[in-house]
From TrEMBL:
Residues 1-21 form the signal peptide. The lineage of its organism: Eukaryota, Viridiplantae, Streptophyta, Embryophyta, Tracheophyta. Its EC number is 3.2.1.2. Substrate binds at residues 142, 182, 190, 388, 393, 435, 477-478, 512. The active site is at 275 (proton donor), 476 (proton acceptor). This is Beta-amylase.
């Protein structure tokens, strides 16, 4: 039967509805109804401007159409002629040789039923085979949230989809999958009804504000309002978290389809109909084309309370709180723009208020897409994802673009509303899927001239917005298309003829598979369309075939690389041999000395401890002895080596092995039979210390020993215990000198700082709060002694009355120094870190009474709060996603009752792996089990040694943790914490959350592990040799065009090497060569990317609460060109590169606080004690402070060593409140690590209390003399310089004036 180009039919309104809802156009995914976009409705007539669209109208009238699917004699079967077309032939463009554009076909809505079962699989299989015969690339399927998670939260049923996906894979087709978080059935054209999950609708019955709401308070249940993206109203989850859990479940369930490449793209549903827009034109509420729609938000139309709250807040920030409302003159759903005051030409949409409101309205849309796509990238790492925009083309030729404004696209005549959306998509690497590619503006003029529509103009704008942002652009047809005219329009838009850059669509999806498409003439046109979209494929030849010389070049590079590798192996072998020789000599020297002198040395220590002090001569002798010792221990390979016969070395090895075997048996027996809690690598010193404690003696970490009842007789240098960094106590590895050059008794020199911020070399006393089974097995005296020290604190008078307030002990007394006046300086909160053992492995609070007493003492000093480590290994110890927060809940309640604040650390690392940790908290058991079968989940050094302190960043995106990636595991843990302690967040008790990003919670590589033999000031080693890191390095090297660079440096030394001993870090070394710069950039980029990923999720989990990240102050080798220790830690900070700029930029992106350590260290101390380390902590602090403040991020501080003396506290104050800073910048907060019995002693506590008052800017109880004049200031501070200069005896006279001059300039002193 022949049809004319235009057919006039008489239809009633009900018949017109049937036209749109019949099977021809059933299941339209576009939000704009098909019948109202292209039909002219006036009275009872419908004008149709396209021939094959008439089939649907005719069928609605019940007319007969002779279009048998197998045979139609009236149709021409050729590809080059229009099938059954009565119009004259129009010359068509030849698409042969054009770009290949894949074509997918969307499956019917009803292919999966509400029980998640596949409907009519045999018929579907036949249709898929027909599509396969047309060379269709694949199919698109909606995965409905309302089907999969229908009845209970996080209970997913994927059975029907699995069967469907298997069917598609068997046919060797690809899959596009839509994460459909919306309702199906609410729009015209939906032939099935799929509501939101039942448990969601039950929540909606009690809290209807979870839905979008119009001005008349009508709720739209098609999807959830974006106002609850961050609100925990869905069974303790936010909407965004619900979407993420759903997507992750899908990714895990169909992992093999992702691995095999069957699933080629995931489209993320972002709103009604899966499109990123507001539901501003719902048919269920009476909207008809071309109505402008209504604003679906809190301020403009009857609003849900969550978006209203957001608008009110935005108005208050703007300073106009009365703007926290919606426009009052924006009409209704079916208004025309010129009829209302807001959208008419010159209307309120372009006023001050209108621009504010529309900016806020569109920003909410962009922020929603940003949040969801961020998590989608995490869930579908390695797979392309896309987001869909609807083509709202009506009223496009008006000034206001009213229909677009109500949908959230701020695209008025003086703005580009799609550029910000494209920029957001580019941020996440997401493709833009746009509709209405088949529509022609001329058809709209015929049907609805008053709508002033322009689909072609809209498509052109969106095409250029996407391509200008360099994001892929995909498309769908908005209406079912069966004629050549519509297909040709799609082809013109998909492959623009005159585009000079050859840009084209990335993929096209045909909407939708139906019986009408399967009819013979329709399918022939479709098959012809697919062929033209594919163009003519061209064989891709190897580059070597185009460039004959390339093969020879590659061969030369390979030979060169093999030679370099052979040379590097020889060089590293020589280095290893020399280091082994040094170690053997050192072992023999000190082991033989131990046999003869160890007992005498310990006895001497005990005598010194009981005498209570040392003379300056003994101090100097001990200092010299310490320097000699450090020359051997800290700097292997430095100095002349004694040549020894080979036989003597072999005998030494045998003797050492024999001694170690005996020691191992002794230690094993003590652990088994003596009930001693000795670490795995304990030595004879640990045995002696344990025996002394059992005999009732107190043994400090530095080896100092004294009776437990005679604390007043301790040496002046005694308070050296409990040096802390990060989560661990850091302690000195050597016996400290009693006093050095006039340093106060409590001042920690860099001798005690031996391992600096990387932790010390031996175990301090167990925490008095650790009453776990392992600790209780020790003698009761240990815990008792800790309590006695606490009780002898400042409130009881104590036994420290004999200690006077002099800060100098071994030089003639000098007058008290005038100090800086901090009156009027900013208030800086002070927090104290709680002991590591406050919570045991069963997640129970240990010794709550003792802890409460100490917290009250801290409260009396006006401390603002405490910091607590929340250990992953305790909370999620046994089973994935089973969390036990009991002990922390009791602890937080205690802190809350004392009206203190909380800083919480998300500790994803191990405690106890570094010397100085007084408790052992491993990673969760289930993680350790995975590590035994796959050790590459841990950081690995060049020798293949694994570091189980934390997980390798190489598995951030690898699903190796029971179907989850490492990033997802961290996110789930943080979400659980946020939900469990919601009331503490709401009440403001938790003021900041510090997110652990690496070893010791710090953003760095574990390049200096003590367990692997590192000693200060060794440069450390690169930790990038697990298979996941090497895979990343290989990929990066190949992308750079140098695949032979996929290796770590061969000449970077070992843990205890010094820069000048290595070919990589020496001056002019390879670190600054082409390969070195490539490797270090990659190494540092991995670090920044890890922080970026984790902090983005932390920001989502802890929305509204400050988050922080910690950086370690690696100051040794800072004065060398390479900054070797920083490089191995991942901080690319050589002399010609700022390694902290990229880190602070990343922190600024997430609004995170930078927590930096070592603000209390003096460079002059480092110059004396470890001159060979070329350390400069003051220079490092100055660089990091300015890097943070230059980008405007807050910075917090933490001391690397325990502070007990005024000199060190004053140094912290100088850095926390720089008085010379013209902008008045200062620390956001300061954290003191860590609460200990030593801090509670009277003298040290008084200094700490004074420090807190000064940080708070309160008057001191004893007012110190102020600086009367500049001359006196110069004299007093010069005197301080003179005191410090006594420590420079080992310096040459040539270098000393330069150092003193530099110190003086830093303090603003004019010296004669």
């Amino acid at each position: 039967m022949a049809f004319n180009a235009c057919v006039a039919l008489s239809l009633t309104n009900s018949q017109l509805f049937l036209v749109s809802s019949m099977r021809v156009c059933s299941g339209f995914r576009s939000s704009v109804t098909c019948n109202l976009r292209c039909h002219r409705v006036k009275g009872d007539a419908v004008s149709i401007g396209s021939r094959f669209r008439n089939f649907g109208v005719a069928r609605a009238k019940g007319l007969k159409i002779e279009d048998h699917s197998l045979l139609d004699d009236s149709l021409d079967n050729t590809d080059d002629e229009q099938v059954g077309d009565v119009r004259p032939k129009v010359p068509e463009r030849d698409f042969t040789g054009t770009a290949y554009v894949p074509v997918y076909v969307m499956l019917p809505l009803s292919v999966i039923d509400m029980n998640c079962e596949l409907v009519d699989p045999e018929d579907l299989l036949n249709q898929l085979r027909i599509l396969k015969s047309a060379n269709v690339d694949g199919v698109m399927i909606d995965c409905w949230w309302g089907i999969v998670e229908a009845h209970a939260p996080q209970v997913y049923k994927w059975s029907g989809y699995r069967r469907l996906f298997q069917m598609v894979r068997d046919l060797k087709l690809k899959l596009q999958v839509v994460m459909s978080f919306h309702e199906c059935g609410g729009n015209v054209g939906d032939d099935v009804h799929i509501p939101l999950p039942q448990w969601v609708t039950e929540i909606g019955e009690t809290n209807p504000d979870i839905y979008f709401t119009d001005r008349e308070e009508r709720r739209n249940t098609e999807c959830l309002t974006w106002g609850i993206d961050k609100e925990r109203v869905l069974k303790r989850r936010t909407a965004v978290e619900v979407y993420f859990d759903y997507m992750r479940s899908f990714r895990v369930e169909f992992d093999e389809f992702f691995q095999d490449g069957i699933i080629s793209e995931i489209e993320i549903g972002l709103g009604p109909c899966g499109e990123l827009r507001y539901p501003s034109y719902p048919a269920k509420h009476g909207w008809t084309y071309p109505g402008i729609g209504e604003f679906q938000d809190v301020s403009f139309q009857c609003y849900d309370k969550y978006l209203m709250k957001s608008l009110s807040k935005a108005a208050e920030v703007r300073g106009h709180s009365f703007w926290g409302r919606g426009p009052e003159n924006a009409g209704s759903y079916n208004s025309a723009p010129h009829e209302i005051g807001f959208f008419r030409d010159g209307g309120d949409y372009d006023s001050y208020y209108g621009r504010f409101f529309l900016n806020w309205y569109s920003q909410v849309l962009i922020d929603h897409g940003d949040r969801v796509l961020d998590l989608a990238n995490l869930a579908f790492e390695g797979t392309g994802i896309s987001a869909k925009l609807s083509g709202i083309h009506w009223w496009y030729k008006t000034a206001s673009h009213a229909a677009e404004l109500t949908a959230g696209f701020y695209n008025s005549s003086n703005r580009d509303g799609y550029a910000p959306i494209a920029a957001m998509l580019r941020k996440h690497g997401v493709a833009l899927n746009f509709t209405c590619f088949e529509m022609r503006t001329v058809d709209q003029y015929e049907g609805f001239p008053e709508a002033l529509a322009d689909p072609e103009g809209l498509v052109w704008q969106v095409l250029n917005a996407a391509w200008d942002a360099c994001i892929p652009l995909a498309s769908e047809n908005a209406l079912p298309c069966y004629d050549r005219e519509g297909y040709n329009k799609i082809l013109e838009n998909a492959k623009p003829l005159h585009n000079p850059d050859g840009r084209h669509l990335s993929v096209f999806t045909y909407l939708r598979l139906s019986p009408v498409l399967m009819e013979r003439h329709n399918f022939q046109e479709f098959e012809r369309f697919v062929k033209r979209m594919h163009g003519k494929s061209r064989k891709r030849l190897s580059h070597a075939l185009f460039f004959p010389s390339l093969q020879s070049k590659l061969l030369k590079r390979t030979v060169t690389f093999e030679r370099e590798r052979e040379y590097g192996n020889r060089y590293s072998k020589i280095n290893r041999t020399s280091e082994e020789d040094d170690d053997e000599e050192m072992d023999m020297d000190f082991k033989e000395e131990d046999d003869d002198n160890r007992g005498k040395h310990i006895a001497a220590q005990m005598m010194v401890g009981m005498d209570g002090g040392m003379t300056s001569n003994s101090s100097n002798n001990q200092f010299q002895h310490h320097q000699q010792f450090q020359e051997h221990v800290s700097s292997p390979g430095v100095g002349a080596r004694r040549s020894k016969p080979l036989e003597e070395k072999e005998r030494t090895k045998l003797r050492e092995r024999h001694r170690r075997a005996i020691t191992a048996r002794i230690l094993a027996g003590l652990r088994r039979h003596g009930n001693y809690n000795l670490r795995v690598r304990a030595d004879i010193n640990d045995v002696i210390a344990a025996l002394a404690r059992e005999a009732g003696w107190v043994v400090l970490p530095d080896g100092t020993i004294f009776p437990s009842r005679s604390q007043g007789s301790r040496p002046a240098g005694g308070p050296s215990a409990a040096i802390t960094s990060s989560s661990s106590h850091l302690v000195s590895q050597l016996t400290p000198p009693g006093s050095l050059g006039g340093v106060s008794p409590g001042h920690q020199t860099s001798v005690e700082y031996n391992s600096c911020c990387m932790k010390g070399v031996f175990i301090p006393n167990p925490s008095p709060y650790d009453l776990s089974a392992s600790t209780q097995s020790q003698t009761p005296g240990m815990v008792g002694e800790g309590r006695e020290q606490t009780e002898s604190g400042p409130r009881d008078g104590g036994s420290m009355n004999t200690i006077n307030d002099k800060q100098i002990v071994d030089i003639p007394p000098i007058p008290k120094l005038p100090e800086q006046d901090f009156a009027g300086s900013p208030f800086i909160p002070v927090y104290v870190m709680l002991p590591l053992g406050a919570i045991n492995m069963k997640c129970e609070l240990v010794d709550p009474d003792g802890l409460l007493k100490q917290l009250k003492v801290l409260k009396s000093a006006n401390v603002d709060g405490v910091m607590v480590d929340c250990w992953w290994g305790i909370v999620e110890a046994h089973t994935p996603q089973e969390y036990n927060w009991n002990g922390y809940k009791r602890l937080f309640q205690m802190v809350h009752e004392l009206k203190l604040k909380l800083q919480v650390v998300m500790s994803f690392h191990e405690c106890g792996g570094n010397v100085g940790d007084d408790v052992c908290i491993p990673l969760p058991n289930w993680v350790a089990e995975i590590g035994r079968s796959n050790p590459d989940i841990f950081f690995t050094d060049r020798e293949g040694r694994r570091n189980p302190e934390c997980l390798s960043w190489g598995i951030d995106k690898e699903r190796v943790l029971r179907g989850r990636t490492a990033i997802e595991v961290y996110f789930d843990y943080m979400r659980s914490f946020r939900a469990e302690f919601d009331e503490f967040f709401e009440d403001g008790i938790i003021s900041m959350v510090e997110v652990g990003l690496g070893p010791c919670g710090e953003l760095r590589y574990p390049s200096c592990p003590v367990k692997h033999g590192w000693r200060y000031p060794g440069i450390g080693e690169f930790e990038c040799y697990d298979k996941y890191f090497l895979k990343s390095l290989k990929k990066t090297a190949e992308a750079r065009g140098h695949p032979f660079w996929a290796r770590g440096p061969d000449n970077a030394g070992s843990y205890n090497s010094q820069p000048h001993e290595t070919g990589f870090f020496c001056d002019g070394g390879e670190y600054d060569g082409y390969y070195g710069r490539f490797f270090l950039n990659w190494y540092a980029r991995i670090l920044v990317d890890h922080g970026d990923r984790v902090l983005s999720l932390a920001k989502l989990a802890f929305e509204g609460t400050r988050i922080a990240a910690k950086l370690l102050g690696i100051h040794w080798w800072y004065k060398t060109s390479s900054h070797a220790a920083e490089l191995t830690a991942g901080l690319y900070n050589p002399c010609n590169h700022d390694g902290y700029a990229a880190i602070v930029a990343m922190l600024k992106k997430h609004g995170a606080v930078l927590n930096f350590s070592c603000p209390e260290l003096w460079t002059v101390d480092q110059q004396v004690d470890f001159a060979e380390a070329h350390a400069d902590p003051e220079g490092l602090v100055w660089q990091v402070l300015n890097a943070a403040w230059d980008v405007g991020i807050p910075i917090a501080g933490e001391n690397a060593l325990p502070c007990y003396d005024r000199v060190t506290y004053n140094k912290i104050l100088d850095n926390a409140k720089p008085l010379s800073d013209p902008d008045g910048r200062h620390f956001l907060s300061f954290t003191y690590p860590r609460l200990s019995p030593l801090l509670m002693e009277r003298q040290t506590y008084m200094e700490f209390e004074r420090f807190v008052k000064t940080m708070h800017v309160r008057l001191l109880q004893k007012v110190l003399p102020t600086v009367p004049c500049e001359g006196q200031t110069s004299h007093s501070l010069s005197h301080l310089v003179a005191i410090r200069a006594k420590k420079l005896a080992s310096f040459s006279r040539k270098g000393m004036p330069l150092l003193i001059s530099r110190f003086s300039r830093r303090k603003g002193i004019q010296m004669e």
